[in-house]
Amino acid sequence: MLSVCFRVSSAIVVICTVLLGYFRIVQAPIRPPSGGGGGSEGTTEKKTPKLFLGDHFGKIHSLIWFVFFVALLLNLCCGILISINRDRLEQKVLEVIKALQEKEERVQQTGKRALEMANELVGGKPLPKDDGKISMPPGEATGVLTITEPTGGMIGDETVFVGTCSNPRKTKTVWLVIRERRSSLFIVSQPIPVKPDGTWTGTILVGREDLDAGRVYEILAVADPIDPDTLHVADILGAWPETRLRSDVVTVTRR
């Protein structure tokens, strides 16, 4: 819209400039021929041709000057606003580029951790024997955040986890962190929104069909991370994340 206004006002300024130049030419003083009788020689007579405008010549001339100044002012304002918007657009573009670069770095780190996990699970480094012990996350489960379903047992491909948060006004998002009990890798699920009544429901994939049957997994619900940039979907961590809120660890077995 600003660019259209700038172009239109520029065109009006040019048209008015041409018309004013034309009027200046037709209003130029006309010198009578020398040697003529009845008048003093060398005098200059100011004569304004009426042309096709007739008696409205002066009014039209003043109106064009008015339109010229208005269009010029509008043109300057539009130019300033376009310049400001261009600076803002460049700033936004730089912010988007920076965000994409950060995302690319995060994806590369995730891919590296995924390769490490594949190495660990497939054969690069054999998993230790399951000692039956649950690894303890940092912090203390205060009961503010809980997993109510499932609380154990066998699970299939896609499992629905249900839980509660006693402070839904402050805590808006919950993450589930998954760990195969013999592994040192911790996988972050997609963020799960907390409903106004304090409940949350999320579906996650735990293990692989056939390949991971019988494996034991630890599931932890966390919220309010110490470092807000810690938790992203599909991140692979080297330890339980440090958060202000966490549930008790739920142990499930892949069917």
Low-confidence region ranges: none
Q: What is the count of β-strands? A: 11
The backbone outline, from C-alpha atoms, is: rod-shaped
Counting structural domains, the number is 2
Helix/strand class: alpha+beta
Radius of gyration computed on alpha carbons: 39 Å
DSSP helix count? Answer: 2
Structure in words:
- There is one protein chain.
- The protein has 255 residues and is an alpha+beta fold.
- The protein folds into 2 domains: 1-31 and 46-126; 145-254, Immunoglobulin-like (Sandwich), CATH 2.60.40.10.
- It has helices at 2-26, 57-122; strands at residues 145-149, 154-155, 158-165, 173-180, 186-188, 192-193, 199-205, 216-225, 236-237, 243-246, 250-254.
- Strands 2, 4, 5, 6, 8, 9, 10 and 11 form an 8-stranded mixed sheet that branches. A 3-stranded antiparallel sheet has the order 1-3-7, with no helix packed on it.
- The longest helix has 66 residues, at 57-122.
- The two termini are 61 Å apart.
